[in-house]
Amino acid sequence: MSGVIVTHPPKADPKDVEALAGFGVATVSEAMGRTGLLGPDIRPVQQGIRVAGTAVTVLSWPGDNLMIHAAVEQCGEGDILVVTTTSPSTDGMFGELFATALKQRGVRAVVTGAGIRDTQELREMGFAAWARAVSSQGTVKATGGSVNVPIALDGQVVRPGDVIIADDDGVVVVPREKARETAERSEAREAKEAATREAFLGGQLGLDRYGLRETLERLGVSYRTYEAWEGERS
Question: Is 173 exposed, middle or buried (0-12, 13-18, 19+ CB in 10 A)?
């Protein structure tokens, strides 16, 4: 497998990335029309951490982390390393030594469709990680791949420079050219949710706030007392 290492790809504006960092994965995905989410198999190895950054993408051979080594050189402040393999793999391709090198360069996290190891060390050093698997299985460094090319990861296309937001709920990808618009829509959504939260705290029901009583009626859902319901069943 031959490959390419692309240098200096376009990236989302840091101001837009910072704006998106204030919102959770669910909010951002909803703001994009319920799109951009990686599947639920990509899970955090820590809790209570939210990160946002620009993607440096890696396409590797399964069980081979050579191209992660190559990608470290292409990473910088505010980046998130995003790794996939040419076919399914759960081997522990990423661990504490990679995290040490990346943290020194200002990288905020790793997201991988393969496996990671040294999870206790990653938590202790404060390097956030989302992965498909945790595995101690080692890897080789023998096959070419690519860095900073579009990759497919768990149902999404991730391009270098796209915005990655990750938290306890998962990972979402925001196309770099939609970063500002998505941040604005996320802010509007949070303001709407804040108003709804206040209404719920005041005792209002979602049935009334969202007009769902009419929906229930349209769908033929009716109310019955227990006695009437029991009588109808007998």
Answer: buried
